[in-house]
Structures are given as C-alpha cells and as structure tokens.
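Entry 14. Ran structure prediction on the chain below.
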Amino acid sequence: MAIAGEKPNVIIIFADDLGYGDLSCYGHPTIHTPRIDQMAQEGIKLTSFYAAACVCTPSRAGLMTGRYPLRVGQPGNLGPDSPAGLSRDERTLAEALKSNGYRTAAFGKWHLGAVPGYMPTDRGFDEYLGILYSNDMMPPWVKTKRPLHLYRNNQPTAEQPVDQTTITKRYTDEAIRFIKESGDDPFFIYLPHSMPHLPVYASAAFQGTSMGGRYGDVIEEIDANVGRILDVLKAEDKDDNTIVVFTSDNGPWRNMPPRMYETEPVEKWHGGTTGSLFGAKATSYEGGYRVPAIVRYPGVIPVKQVSAELATTMDIHTTILEWTKSSMPEKELDGKSISALLKGDSKSPHTEYFYFKGRDIQAVRTKEWKLRIGIPADGWTSPELNAKDLPILLQLFNMKNDPFEQFNVADDHPKVVAELKSKMESMAKELGANLAESL
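Output, structure tokens:
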C-alpha cells in the first residue's frame, strides 16, 4: 500500500491512437492484453474517460497542462517543421513535479515542440529518449525535408532510419533503467508510446504471434512491456508507492487519409477499433474522444473497480498534483481532482465536458446527454471528415441509454438542446472558439 509520508512515484503510460475497443479488458475478442487487464483488476477501469482532444498534439497539451488545449493555444497538431510548441507561459506536469523534488523523464513521442526551447528537456524533464512527433511524419506519408530522428535529450542520435520495430521495447528499457537508478528519490516517468499510431511495427519476438494480426502484435507488445514495468516496480520494492496510469491520447485512426496507403505496411485494419462506439480519431463522436483508462495505486485505489463516471485526461494532471502534494499553478485548471472518484467514494466532479476539433467547439456532454453540432462522419473513410459541402447536423444523444450515438433524439427534447447549446455558446465565448450554426 501507499507509504505514509513518502511522495508517491508516478508513471503515465500514454498509447498513441489506441482505440476504446483495442484491449481485451475493454472487449476485444482476439487481441489479448493480460498485463493491462491485471492493472484493471488491481485498480480501477474507467469506461467514460475522455482524452483532452481527438488528435495528438492538443491531447498531450491537455495532459501536460491540465487545461483545455484551445485555452493554452494548442488547438491542432504540430508538424516536423513547426516553428514553436506548447506555450512557454504554461507550466507542465513535469515542471510541477520537478520543482517538488522529483526526478523526471520522458521516453517516447513528445509532439509538443521539436525546436530548441520546446523540447522535453526544456519543459521539466531531466531525461528524454524518443521521437519528437508522430512516427509517420516523414516521406512518403508527410512532405518534409526533416528526417525522422530518434532524440537523446535535445540531440538527434545517429540512428537513421529509426528502427521502429524495437521502439516499444527500447522506451520501456529506458523507463526500467530510470526506475532502478532512482534509489529513494521520487520519480515521474512519462511513457508516451509511438505505437499504435500508423504505420505500426512490432519487434521480431511479437511479429505474427497475435490472433489480432499485425495490429494485435503491436498492442500485445505494448501490453507485455506494461507488464515489465509492473514487474520491476515489485522487484525494486516500489510497487506499493507508485501510481501507474494507462490510457490513450485519442481514438483510433480508422479514418486515415489516402496518403497513408502510399506504401507498405499500412492496411486499413491497422487503424484499431472503437468497439461499439461511433466515430474515430479527428471526430467529436465518442470513438474520437472516449479512450481506455486504468489507474492503479495500491492501498489508495481499491481493487476490481469499474466506473462509468465522467473523467478526463486533464483530471489526471490535477489528481497527480494533489497526490504528490505539488503546488497548483496560478492559472485555473480545467482538470479536477478525481481522487475521491478513483477511491470509489464519490461521483464525477464534472457537470459537463466539451469536445473540440481544432478551434471549433462541436459538442458538450453532461452525465446523461450529449449535444453535437457538426458535419457527419461514418467513422471509417476520410472524405466525410473533410468535405466542405456536407450539412451541419444537430444531434442529441442519451449517454445512458445510447452511448453508441445511434439515435438522434434532438426533436424530442428541445429544452435539453437549448440548455446544452447555451453551455456551448458560453464556452465558445470564453475560449474564443467557433460554434457552427445548426439547421
């Protein structure tokens, strides 16, 4: 159990584009994830947990700052040639914990700035190894002259091209080393895997081993490496005093654009699954925002819990600040402490949650209802996501009876529509967001 008087260690394992239905403990029939399932049995599995955004950069900005990405000026993705990154006016979770005496490290995909001043070691991390942005941000998939490099701290390594088949294991190797070297010092490890963002790669030991095909190989390798983290915590006698979070930055890229099919090894079924949820990455439907989330903290979080209470990535930020007794920032956080919820002692602290796509506010959810105002998407092909001539839909879904967004009941509940639209208008005004006019 947690050790009284000691600062808990913190590990956040952040998968890239992992879908709500990609783990066996969330219902996948052929992909097997026994170590992540073990985490769920030893802590809490959240079934109404939302990423801070439906694409990579803003989602990570939400985790690192505890604030809506649009509020921190990061509504969309950065690319290899972007001139800056996450605003220097924002305090990151790493900076908060480092100032509280923590050793800090990030091993994996950063995607919050790839130029001096914005790299992980500039934003509170003592160490870094990883790829500074998405693993497809190189020719032929992305037009850029910047090579896809593996960075050690703020310098590119000589490895070219990056061996992505071994990247999941190598990130975990670094995390294990860091744990072992920490001694009695509290540590924070941010482990944002490059996988399963497309193109997907698994190491030789996992290739062809999953009933879920190539994508299953990738997920099962992530699972095995989660297990390695859990095992070393026990071996180093740190298990009882370590918070471990496993989640994803957004939903799966089932709606990938044609550019991704220009070369092997990309197939459309490499995009993961949302289970029964509708939509996908880059949409404001549930499949784009709702992600798996498991939190394990022995002696603090009771075992074998499942909660459908509303929670977000930004809440993880705030809750970790609370549990580590780190200072709160001067700026107001959108994330709220879910400590009591994770302990099974209370309901969600949220009355609503807002969904954005870039600078557009497209939806709001309360405990029971979700109002969405935006163009339709079928959750699979990309043209529906980008067409400019599609009609704006006003859709109301009952999140208790219809979490799969199959039945639009807006006409039956005009008062609910008016109330939720008013909430969206207020938030749009507060953040300077755009709100589409509905029919």
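Confidence is low (pLDDT under 50) at residues 380-385. Will compare against last week's run tomorrow.
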